[in-house]
Amino acid sequence: MLEEHLDALFLALGQLDVRHVERLGRRLADLLAGDGRLLVAGNGGSAAHAQHLTAELVGRYRDPYRAPCSAIALHADTSSVTAVANDFGWDDVFARQICAHGRPGDALLAISTSGQSTNLLRATDAARDRSMHTWALTGAAPNPLFEHSDETISVGGSTATVQEVHQVVVHLLCQVVDDRLQSGAAR
Known about the structure:
Layout: H1 2-15, H2 18-33, E1 38-42, H3 45-58, E2 71-73, H4 78-88, H5 93-101, E3 107-112, H6 118-129, E4 133-138, H7 144-148, E5 151-154, H8 159-183
Parallel strand pairs: 1-2, 1-3, 3-4, 4-5
């Protein structure tokens, strides 16, 4: 059973389009270098990935001298999340925050293993309405979030496999951001 899990993980990692991840990482680095902001949203394990990514960008990934980048995990402000959920419903919990914090040219990264979460679809629509970039990490495509986003990295496999590969993607994005900002290649 354990070997099957690892076999599925290695298969999914082998199918990951690293050039696509690198292109998205360069776009993210350019956005952050130009005083843009990354807003990240997810539910459950995907929320953990969102928070991990923003922590690496605000704090540091590997480069201790890189300036902090503006990145917000939308689920992490529990008072806002619970107030919005109570007053407007869970489906609008991220969209309402996008309207508060998102600016034209910023980016939303929505993370979902299923690609079907209504609150992420509404957040993507809100981001698009604010002239933001809409990016997604999802499970196997096609799925609704894949269709709603400007750019998507999709991963096939079980929920566990998708989540494990998403964590690798988070670290790869951070590496590209560090490398690009350190070299001064970002605008």
